[in-house]
Automatic annotation (TrEMBL):
SUPFAM superfamilies: Nucleotide-diphospho-sugar transferases. NCBIfam families: glyco_like_cofC. It holds the Pfam family DUF2064. This is TIGR04282 family arsenosugar biosynthesis glycosyltransferase. Gene3D superfamilies: Spore Coat Polysaccharide Biosynthesis Protein SpsA, Chain A. It comes from Pseudomonas zhanjiangensis. InterPro entries: Nucleotide-diphossugar_trans, Trfase_1_rSAM/seldom-assoc.
Length: 205
């Protein structure tokens, strides 16, 4: 059976002082904003293979350059719905599943997430209702779903090292099987910055 799978990138618009706040003490507001833009542009350049549609969900209006890049690369630009992170993810998943058989939700904080990783997620969704891409910090960098339940998103301690474990516990409560992909790292703290240079992303400290 062939599934139609839509890709949903949730991101914060690069606005100085509002993005990558944990990195501002090291990079400054402008430097942290530049890093957010670089990571977002990198995510937008992921290949579109395997996806029926690709959506960029931003929390604020994009500037002209970002809007043009998203359009040129075939992304549909949408404003994020209201609510905390969990509620926004739930709503986006519900909207995506109204038009496709499965959804894959990612952020822009994980530069190690590549086309091969996305392909593994899509392949897993053919066999399992849920696929998770674990992050080294205890969260996850990817969530793939063929069905939605509010339990996966409600009252979740986002940004902590308990998110992945709690999500897996809740999947067990729902009696939903899931597949775990290899663990990746994301960029959130100063100690994450040296890894970026190995990927060719310059950081001005």
């Amino acid at each position: 059976m062939s599934l139609s799978i839509s890709l949903h990138l949730l991101a914060r618009s690069p606005v100085p002082g509002r993005v990558k706040t944990r990195l501002i003490p090291v990079l400054g507001e402008e430097g942290a904003c530049d890093l957010q833009r670089a990571l977002l542009e990198r995510a937008l350049q992921l290949p579109d293979s395997g996806f029926s549609q690709r959506f960029l969900w931003l929390d604020d209006s994009p500037d002209a350059g970002l809007q043009a890049l998203a359009g040129d690369l075939g992304w549909t630009l949408v404003e994020q719905p209201a609510g905390d992170l969990g509620e926004r993810m739930r709503r986006i998943a519900v909207l995506g599943l109204a038009e496709s058989d499965a959804v894959v939700l990612i952020g822009n904080d994980c530069p190690a997430l590549d086309s091969e990783y996305l392909g593994s997620a899509c392949a897993a969704l053919h066999d399992q209702p849920v696929v998770l891409g674990p992050a080294e910090d205890g969260g996850y960098v990817l969530l793939g779903l063929r069905r939605v339940d509010p339990l996966l998103f409600h009252a979740m301690p986002w940004g902590t090292d308990r998110v992945l474990a709690m999500t897996r516990d809740r999947l067990q409560q729902l009696d939903w099987d899931h597949r775990l992909l290899p663990t990746l790292w994301d960029v959130d703290r100063p100690e994450d910055l040296p890894r970026l240079e190995a990927l060719g992303i310059q950081v001005m400290v």
